[in-house]
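Protein folding task:
====================
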Amino acid sequence: MISLDYIPRYYKTLDNQSYLDQDSAKLARSKLMESFKDDGGITYPNDYGGSYTYGSALVVCLLDVSEERINRYREICSFDDLYFEKVSYTYSKLLDAYYHAIEIMQKEDAVIAVRVCNRSNCVIVSIYNYSAETTKWDSVFKESYYCIEGVETKGGDTSGPGGGSTIKHTYGSETAYRNTSLTCWAYAGSGSNRKYYAVTSGHYTQNGDPFYYGTAYLGDASNVVTSNYSDVTIIEYNSSTASLIVSPVGYIGSGLYWGSSTTEVPGEGDNIFLYARGSMRTGEVSAYPAAYKLSFNNNSISNALYCSYSNYSVIEGDSGGCVYTITNSVRKLCGIQSHCDGIGCGYAPLAQNCFASTNLSGVVYSGNEP
């Protein structure tokens, strides 16, 4: 484990928001990933065990920490704040173990989440009520690259009371009032043909459900997706209430866009922010990739972010909140808060996957309309 005493931490400010400067570390990681590309995609070297940002530095995990190999990686990354850590398992091995664990998760109710942790050089498997069947699970995940995390609760889909906007969902004759968080706004078209939308999480929502802002009817849910890689819904605004559009991300300001070219896939250790229920939380990506089950329908979501936040536990009402990072002084939407793990951390499907799963045209923005 790298000592905190030796890791540099540089900070920047954007619109009075202080954040950890990881631009150079992210660029070094990008160069590293680029060096792994070949005609068939990405082939990870047999001495590469993953990487993660740590403060403003980049840590590369290697099975071979000889001077020759370290110098090779230093040449690729061209980055002074580069550190190395000796590990036991290749990143390819961890990915194989991750996908194998997902297959088991899809068959076993008690397996509720799986994630790759480069910092620990292992695949963490979350098992509900693990203590009741330790022999079984120790046998299923007997390989030493698995780390079992016993949890006493299955966590939850975080769209209960306490969100930023009052939402009314109607299920048949039953009306439920709940609070949730809206990620950002959308627009499509121009002039009198322009339409407006909001984006939030999709769980507990059905196509056609009405959404309200206070007592004002906003519109109905559409494009509800809660499987594979996405947990998202699009709300098309009622034309008479389009004037109610305000920035749901408060003082974040403008520049948070929804689109294939304006999102970012962060890496483990990257500084992130969650804006939900009217306030901002600062945290980091604790693991990526991650997979989890939505508790309400047992659907599995994979290729997600696993996020932890300083002095804050992800709770009901945070669903739909935007998870974003700042790179080169630009805010980039990373994910949509979806699920809490029962111990305070949250899972967020990648924004780019949620975007790809909907048929919404146009872009989503926060702040003043461009």
